[in-house]
Amino acid sequence: MICFAWITSRRLAAALLFLALPGIALALPRASSVPGGIALITLGVVSGSTGPPRAWFGEQRVLVTSADGHWVAVLGLALDLPPGRHQLRVNVGGEEKILPFVVSAKNYPEQRITLKDSSKVNLSPADEARAVSEIAVIQELKRHWRDVDDTDSNFLQPAEGRLASRFGLRRIFNGEPRSPHSGLDVAVPRGTPIKASAQGRVLAVDDYFFNGNTVFIDHGNGLISMYCHLDRIDVQAGDSVAQGQHIGRSGMTGRASGPHLHWSVVLNGVMVDPELFIAASRRVR
What does each C-alpha distance from 51 to 20, 112, 184, 231 come to in angstroms? Predict the structure, then answer.
């Protein structure tokens, strides 16, 4: 690999298989440089004389880790990010560089959903005020940053069930267009145990109008997982959790047409496709 060069998604996915942090070997997520995906961008050779580079996309810090002797930026791409050429800002040993990368277009399929409770689609003034307030809180949680040196991005699927509604679907509720699906739905009956995808710290728990009972887990360096529509929450903010640890049980709280787990992954402040973090051998279909 060449230092400070943009490399295509396929070449990176094949070359960068494992992290090389001291005393730990972790898998990188799969590269998919499309809106809602992940760009893997090489930043330079790992050197003992300097620490890891720091990277930003806009004003948001970006996860940087080591793999195959190189520093790599693991950049989340928002669903509404326009395709085309973009830039990553990087500081290496006090020297700032601008690295270009390309985002390709992707057309996500459409999904039509019928909810018996129309109040979850056409909100009353009180419900709309609540939802707007909660969205602001969630946006702030998504931008949370905690420096760690062992971010584990080799996730477990958090529930044993069929993958239902996929990430990025253009959703239409009761005939009315709404925001694209920002997570992955796992079809499970009410009361199914839900597990932490990876080790981390519980960032927040709450009951939201749309998401219902929700747990946020901070995995460090801008990587956060979110578990929604829970029937029961069995952790609290500040708890440390291990990968696979029980955190609650599935349900259909909030806006849901039936019991299931809605699982989202946040990277540098934006929702990205959770399936990119699950090795094929760990997926349940």
Answer: 14, 49, 36, 44
